[in-house]
Amino acid sequence: MSEPKKEEATFETVTPSTFPSNLDKQKHVAGVVPAIEKARLYRGKGGEIMRSAVSRFIECISLSHLSLSEKIKRSLLDTLNENVRHPNSQIQNAAVNALKHFVEAYLVAADTGGTGDITSKYLQMLTDPNVAIRRGSAVALGVLPYEFLVNRWRDVLLKLCSASAIEDNPEDRDAEARVHAVKGLISVCETLTQARKDSNIHSWEDDMSVFLLIKNEVMMSLVKALDDYSVDNRGDVGSWVREAAMDGLERCIYILCKRDSIGSTRRSDGNESVLELPTCDMIKNNQMDSLFDVNLASILVGGICKQAVEKMDKLREAAAKVLQRILYNKTIYVPYIPYREKLEKVVPNDADLKWGVPTFSYPRFVKLLQFDCYSRSVLSGLVISTGGLQDSLRKASISALLEFLEAVEPEDLNEKRSRESMLSADIIGVLQQYKRCDRVIVPTLKVISMKICW
Predict the structure, then answer these.
(1) Are 186 and 252 contacting, i.e. CB atoms less than 8 angstroms apart?
(2) What is the CA radius of gyration of the chain?
(3) Which residue has the higher pLDDT, 383 or 268?
(4) Whole-model pTM?
(5) Do residues 362 and 287 lie in contact, with contact meaning Cβ atoms separated by under 8 Å?
């Protein structure tokens, strides 16, 4: 008995004549989100899943540059703004991803003139009592394109700097909001500087105001964020802010060093004199003309070294890897780092080193205690481990500290006394600097009691 013949599937080429109207199809797709909202499908158990799906759908519409009416554009933008305010982080992230592409596809290209309204709205949301709104607005500012930031770049940067600091009112404090503010701040810096570099509209002098604000305000705010020791029922939530701040400082260093390299190239193009070997005076003059100088380098590297000796394995490893990238970056050379050769011995260019292991990392980083520019920063991180509760960390850090103090020739008593005197002075400095931070003061007092017993 012969088997019945299977019907073969046939495929036809889709052309505009195949559909009753290609425009009708686009209108139908564009009307999906308003139809979902009209049916109130955000309610119930599946409401949060639906919100994430809608944001993803809007992102796809934006990537495909579907034709939308002005009414639909406003409706989709309102939907994204609502999802940006949502307390669910997955919904927020989906909305922010969609917002980035939606703004570029429909608002920048259309040049509607409402760019300032959107930026102002997110700036106002940064100070909202609702922590979810603060979180979402900070990340949303970070994905806005240059056209939305250029007219209010100073306000955006300063507001994000303020949002990255610990809130004055204890009831308003939220570590995630500060993390989002730090990440948004760095994204805005990169957007502003990259777009200005690619544009011929702005003069050299006009650009400098942006870079000076990054140096004097943004980077100092990130340095302060390295001292975020906030704690709640989840533990050391301030470590999230500190980790984000380290990443931000690294990226800001590259921004300034890139700018300095462009500036030095322009200055050298204007000088037609015979090339000479660099002298001490020439190096000093270069520092005076540079955004990134030795003072800034010592502050930033010291702050990162401090994280490399604290008690969290993850944070120590992240800090050491940041230092490795700064020291050995092949694309952007970072100059003026004090005691660079010594630092390169402490942090060699090896990707397989176990920086999270305290018995490996502490003996290396305590060597920096002999340098004035790093000693207090390193000690302020080390005392948290030395005077902490974890026995393994305490033993490893104490052992490394004692080894540093004893690592002198027996007959060289002056060197030993010098190290002990420097350590005592740094301990006093730490107590003065962190006088209102129990997370640092209590371990430091324990270290003092141990030092008396030595």
Answers:
(1) yes
(2) 28
(3) 383
(4) 0.86
(5) no
